[in-house]
Specification:
The protein has 936 residues and is of the alpha/beta class. The protein has 27 helices and 29 strands. The strands form 8 sheets. The protein has a 7-stranded mixed β-sheet with strand order 3-4-5-9-8-6-7, sandwiched between helices. A 6-stranded mixed β-sheet has the order 20-21-22-23-25-24. Strands 12-19-14-17 form a 4-stranded antiparallel β-sheet, with no helix packed on it. Keywords: Hydrolase, Metalloprotease, Protease, Signal.
C-alpha cells in the first residue's frame, strides 16, 4: 500500500482544515487520498484544483494521526493499538465523515442553486439504477421517489464524474424527452467540466468518446452555445496519451469491456478529467459497469429497471430543492451515528429511529460490495473512511457479550455492537473476535480448536455449473486461512463462511432475549486469487463454503489450504473411510464447533451443533447421518424422482429396456440441483422452503417436514393435477414425495411418522359420486368437484399411490403391494416425465404412449399422468381416471388406445386409517359392479 510521509500528511491536513492545500476559496481538494491519508485529499501525485464556494459551516479539522494508528492503517491490523485508541479512531472517523459531507453537499448545493429548476423527471423503465458503491467518492444527484438512484456525481483527485441511468445527454441534445430537465442537466454538465455549476464553459470544448455517439456530444455542446471539438482517441487503450488533450471524456454502454478499464478511468478522473457516463436502456453493460465502478458507482442488476414501478424511475412534481439536497446528503446520518456511538448514557429508541443503524448498514453494504468484487479496502485509495471504521470495530469487538446487550436499556452499547458487527474486512490476515463467543452461531470452545499448520490438498466435488458447496474445513474465529487454487478447470471461485439466508436481526429480534448473535455472522463471498494464495479471516468463524460459477457439473476442484480446522462434516459425494467418518462423529459429540454439515448427491445440510445433537437424540451418529439423513430423506426422494445417482431396481431396468427408454442417462436424469437445508433460523414459519430451505430445528431424517420442503424443490409436473387452478398443486404435489419417503421409511427403518394419504376418504368420494346416479361426463365432473376442487389434500395425494398400487398388482404381479414396487412406479413415472420433455422421439412417440400428439409441448398434466401411467402399468386406465374425476383429452385417449392395452375396470386398494405407510396390509376391492363396503 502506498503511504505518504507522516509529516507531509499532517501538513496537508492542516492546510486542508485552514482552507489551504492548493484549493482556492478555502475549500478542500477533491477525491480520496492514497495510503493512510484521510479525508477528501488528493490522489497520488495530483495537485488540487479550485473548488466552488463552501457552505457556511467550515469542514471539521482532522487531528494528526498518531504513529500507531498510521501503522494500523498500513498493515490492516490493530495489534499495535490499545483500547484507548478507540476514542481517537472514532474522532478521526467523525472528522473524516464531516469533511466528505461538506465536500459533497457543497457540490450538490451548487448544482441545485437555481430556484427555478424543475425537478420532475421520468427515466421510464427502459433505464438502470445508478447507485454509489464508494460513498467517499460518489454521491446521489437524483434519487427516485422510492429511493432508487437515477443519477450520481463523483469527486476524486482533481476530477469529477457524472452518470445517468438513461441517455439523458441524448434526450437533452435532441430535445426529445423530459425537456424540463435541461436546466438541471446543464448545471450538472457545467459542474463536471469546470467545477462550477454556472460555468463558464470554455469557448471550445474538446471531448473524446468511448462506446458513445460523438455527434450527440457535439450537438449538446452546440446547444450550449460553445464550439465542440472531437478528439479521436481509444480511451480503453492503457498506453494512449490522446486523452490528455480532451476536456471531457464521455462513455456509453458500448464501451469495450477491457480488463484495465476501471483503473484507466479512475486515473483519468484523478488527473483532472471530467468523466461522463450515459446508460441508454435496461440492458447490462460490462464495460459500463467498469466505468461506473471507477467513479465509485454501481449499475443496478439485470434486468435494470425493466420491472420497476413508477416510483423507482421518477421524481414527482412535489419534489423541492431542499428535498433533493436532503436525499443527496449520504454522510449526515453516518456523522450523527458516530457521534451517538461516542455518547455516554445515550438515550434513543433504536426501534423507532433507524437513522443511525441505516447509516451503519450503508457502510456495511459498501464494504460487502467492494470485498465481494475482490477489492482490498486497505489498498484502495478512496476508502480512507472505511479503513478507520474497520479498525475501530476491531478494537471494540473483543469485549462484546452476545445475549447480554439490550437495545432498550443500553442503546449506546447496542449501537456500538451493531457497528462493530457491520464494519468487517475478511481479506486480510488479522482480525479480532469476541472472547465470550458468538452467541448461538459459535461457542467459546471453538476459539481453542487447533488449525492446520501445513498446506493440505482438498478435493471438492462440484455438483452443478454454479452454486455453493461445503469444502469440509472450518474457519476458526480470528485465525487466518490461506487458500490457493491448484485446479479449478474453468470455474470461478469465491470462499465464504456458511450458506444461509436467515440469520436473525438484532433490531427486530425479541428485546428480552438481547442481542443474540452477530448481525451477519456469515462472511461475504471473497473471490479466490488465481495466481497466488488468498488470505481470509473471520471474527466469527464458520464452515467454509466454495461459491462457484462457470463450472462443469460433476467436476472436482482442488485447493491447497492452510489454517483451517476439521469439524463434524460428512461428505458422501466421494468415498469416505471409516476413519474419516469416525473423526466427524467424534467432533459431533464434542460440540466444540458451532456447526455440523453433510454433503450428498443432490443435497447438503448445515445445522447448528445444538440442533444436530437434538435431532440425533440418543441414536448412533452413524445411524442418524447415514441411515436417516442420507438413506431416508435424500435417497427416498431421489428414488421417487428417478435420479441417476440411485441404482435402478431390476424391474425398472427391465421395463426401461422393454420400453426403449433412456433411463440411466445422466444428461436426462441427473439430480437437478443441490438442495440445501439449514437448521438454525427460519426465513418464514417454522420450516421454510426454498434453497436453502431453513427452519428452527435440526434436520430430521424421519419426520415429514424436511421431506415436504425437499419435495417443493424437486417435484415434477406429473404430480401437479389441477382443474381451473384448483387441485393438487403447491403444498400438495410436493407432499406426494414426502409420503413416498414415509412409505419407504417404514419398510427400511421401521419408523411410521404418519403423513396421511387418506384412502378411506377418497373411497367415500367415489361412493358418493356413484350414488348420484350420474353417468358419462356429468359423473366425471361431479367427482372432479368433490376431489380436485376441495381443500382436502390427503385424498388427492392418495390417487398417485392408488396408481402405484396398480403397478404392483399388474406389472410386478404382486398379490399385495410392496413398498419397493410402489416406488418403482414413481421412479418410472418421473423418468418418463423428463424423457417426454427432453428426449422426445418424433419417429417413435408410442414409446411414451403419445402417438397421437404432434409434439411434446401441448400435453397437459392430467393427460401426461394418464398416458405415462397406462404405459408403465400396462393397462388402459381411462376408467380409473374417470373414477377419480380426471378429464382427459381425445388425443390422450387415442394415444393410449393405439397401444392395444386392456382397459382396466374400476379397482381400488383399501388401507386402514392408521396404516397408510404399511402398504402390504390392505385389501383389493373390485368396483366394476357394486362398490363394496370399505373393509376398515
Amino acid at each position: 500500500m502506498k503511504t505518504k510521509h507522516f509529516g507531509s500528511l499532517l501538513l496537508l491536513l492542516i492546510l486542508t482544515a485552514c482552507g489551504g492545500g492548493g484549493g482556492d476559496n478555502g475549500k478542500p481538494p477533491f477525491g480520496g487520498g492514497s495510503g493512510t491519508g484521510i479525508g477528501p485529499s488528493t490522489a497520488p501525485g495530483v495537485t488540487p484544483t479550485p473548488q466552488p464556494s463552501a457552505a457556511a459551516t467550515p469542514a471539521p479539522t482532522i487531528e494528526p494521526i498518531p504513529d500507531p494508528i498510521e501503522v494500523a492503517l498500513k498493515t490492516a491490523s490493530v495489534q499495535g493499538l490499545s483500547s484507548s485508541d478507540k476514542a481517537t479512531l472514532l474522532r478521526l472517523s467523525q472528522q473524516t465523515a464531516g469533511q466528505y459531507q461538506q465536500q459533497q453537499n457543497t457540490a450538490l448545493a451548487d448544482i441545485y442553486a437555481d430556484n427555478t429548476l424543475n425537478l420532475t423527471l421520468n427515466h421510464t423503465t427502459n433505464s438502470i439504477e445508478i447507485n454509489r458503491s464508494i460513498s467517499t467518492m460518489a454521491s446521489p444527484l437524483i434519487v427516485a421517489d422510492d429511493g432508487s438512484g437515477m443519477a450520481a456525481i463523483s469527486q476524486y483527485g482533481k476530477g469529477r464524474g457524472l452518470a445517468y441511468g438513461v441517455d439523458m445527454l441524448k434526450w437533452m441534445a435532441d430535445k426529445s424527452k423530459e425537456t424540463q430537465h435541461l436546466p438541471l442537466f446543464t448545471r450538472a454538465f457545467n459542474w463536471v467540466v469546470t467545477g462550477k455549476a454556472a460555468g463558464p464553459l470554455p469557448d471550445t470544448l474538446r471531448f473524446a468518446t468511448a462506446g458513445y455517439d460523438a455527434s450527440t456530444v457535439s450537438k449538446f455542446i452546440t446547444l450550449l452555445g460553445k464550439k465542440p471539438e472531437t478528439i479521436s482517441c481509444d480511451l480503453t487503450l492503457s498506453n494512449n496519451t490522446c486523452w490528455q488533450n480532451a476536456d471531457v471524456l464521455v462513455f456509453g454502454a458500448g464501451v469495450r469491456d477491457d480488463a484495465n478499464l476501471t483503473q484507466l478511468v479512475r486515473q483519468y478522473q484523478a488527473s483532472g478529467k471530467a468523466i461522463i457516463y450515459m446508460h441508454p436502456n435496461w440492458i447490462d453493460s460490462g464495460g459500463g459497469r467498469k466505468v461506473a465502478k471507477a467513479m465509485g458507482m454501481d449499475l443496478g442488476g439485470y434486468p435494470g429497471n425493466y420491472f420497476a414501478g413508477a416510483a423507482g424511475v421518477s421524481v414527482n412534481s412535489n419534489r423541492t430543492i431542499a428535498d433533493a439536497l436532503q436525499r443527496g446528503d449520504q454522510m449526515g446520518a453516518l456523522a450523527k451515528a458516530l457521534e451517538q456511538m461516542g455518547t455516554d448514557n445515550l438515550s434513543i429508541d433504536l426501534a423507532a429511529d433507524t437513522r443511525a443503524t441505516s447509516a451503519i448498514s450503508q457502510i456495511h453494504n459498501e464494504i460487502a460490495t467492494l470485498q465481494s468484487s475482490g477489492i482490498d479496502l486497505f489498498a484502495e485509495a478512496p476508502t480512507d473512511l472505511h479503513r478507520l471504521l474497520i479498525l475501530w470495530a476491531d478494537l471494540y469487538r473483543p469485549t462484546i457479550q452476545y445475549g447480554k446487550i439490550n437495545r432498550t436499556t443500553n442503546p449506546g452499547e447496542f449501537l456500538r455492537t451493531f457497528a462493530s458487527d457491520s464494519w468487517l474486512a475478511y481479506n486480510r490476515s488479522y482480525t479480532t473476535f469476541a472472547s465470550a463467543g458468538q452467541g448461538d452461531f459459535m461457542p467459546v470452545a471453538a476459539q481453542s480448536i487447533p488449525v492446520s499448520q501445513n498446506d493440505e490438498l482438498i478435493d471438492v466435488t462440484i455438483a452443478q455449473t454454479g452454486g455453493t458447496t461445503a469444502i469440509g474445513r472450518a474457519s476458526i474465529p480470528g485465525k487466518p486461512v490461506w487458500i490457493e487454487i491448484v485446479d479449478n478447470g474453468s470455474a470461478n471461485l469465491s470462499i465464504q463462511t456458511n450458506h444461509v439466508r436467515a440469520y436473525g436481526n438484532p433490531l427486530t429480534d425479541n428485546v428480552a432475549e438481547g442481542y443474540k448473535r452477530p448481525r451477519r455472522p456469515q462472511s461475504f463471498a471473497m473471490p479466490l486469487n488465481t495466481s497466488k494464495a488468498t488470505v481470509f479471516v473471520s471474527p466469527f468463524g464458520g464452515p467454509l463454503y466454495l461459491n462457484y460459477g462457470n463450472a462443469v457439473a460433476g467436476q472436482t476442484v482442488t485447493l491447497k489450504i492452510r489454517g483451517t480446522a476439521k469439524y463434524a462434516h460428512f461428505d458422501f459425494t466421494k468415498p469416505q473411510s471409516d476413519a474419516e467418518i469416525d473423526e466427524a462423529v467424534a467432533a459431533l459429540k464434542r460440540k466444540d464447533f458451532g456447526w455440523q454439515t453433510a454433503k450428498f448427491v443432490g443435497g447438503e445440510i448445515q445445522q447448528t451443533i445444538y440442533y444436530a445433537n437434538q435431532a440425533m437424540g440418543n441414536i448412533d451418529p452413524k445411524v442418524y447421518i447415514l441411515d436417516q439423513i442420507k438413506g431416508s430423506l435424500f435417497d427416498s426422494n431421489h428414488i421417487a424422482n428417478g435420479y441417476s445417482n440411485m441404482p435402478m431396481s431390476s424391474k425398472v431396468s427391465e421395463l426401461c429396456t422393454q420400453f426403449g427408454w433412456q433411463c440411466s442417462d445422466a444428461q436426462y436424469h441427473r439430480a437437478p440441483g443441490v438442495q440445501h437445508f439449514v437448521g438454525w433460523i427460519a426465513q418464514c414459519g417454522f420450516l421454510c422452503s426454498g434453497n436453502p430451505s431453513d427452519g428452527f430445528a435440526g434436520i430430521s431424517g424421519t419426520g415429514w417436514g424436511h421431506a415436504h420442503e425437499l419435495g417443493h424443490n424437486t417435484v415434477q409436473r406429473v404430480m401437479s393435477i389441477d382443474f381451473n387452478g384448483q387441485g393438487c398443486v403447491v403444498e400438495c404435489n410436493n407432499n406426494i414425495l414426502a409420503s413416498a419417503q414415509m412409505m419407504r421409511q417404514f419398510k427400511t427403518l421401521g419408523v411410521d411418522t404418519g403423513h396421511t394419504t387418506n384412502h378411506p376418504l377418497l373411497y367415500q368420494y367415489i361412493t358418493a359420486n356413484r350414488a348420484t346416479g350420474l353417468s358419462g361426463d356429468a359423473k366425471i365432473l361431479d367427482m372432479q368437484k368433490r376431489l380436485w376442487t376441495m381443500a382436502a389434500q390427503d385424498p388427492m395425494r392418495a390417487v398417485h399411490f392408488q396408481l402405484a398400487f396398480l403397478f404392483s398388482k399388474y406389472r410386478a404381479n404382486e398379490a399385495k403391494p410392496s413398498m419397493e414396487a410402489s416406488l418403482d412406479y414413481f421412479t418410472l413415472l418421473t423418468k418418463g416425465d423428463r424423457l417426454v420433455s427432453r428426449a422426445w422421439d418424433a419417429n417413435n412417440k408410442g414409446k411414451y404412449a403419445m402417438g397421437s400428439y404432434a409434439d411434446n409441448k401441448t400435453i397437459n398434466n392430467p393427460d401426461l399422468l394418464y398416458v405415462l401411467s397406462s404405459k408403465i402399468i400396462g393397462k388402459d386406465l381411462k376408467n380409473i381416471f374417470a373414477m377419480y374425476g380426471i378429464t382427459l383429452t381425445p388425443t390422450a385417449i387415442s394415444s393410449v388406445a393405439a397401444l392395444g392395452l386392456d382397459v382396466l375396470p374400476e379397482t381400488f386398494y383399501a388401507l386402514a386409517t392408521t396404516k397408510y405407510n404399511q402398504v402390504s396390509t390392505g385389501v383389493w376391492l373390485d368396483l366394476s359392479a357394486q362398490a363394496p363396503t370399505y373393509p376398515f
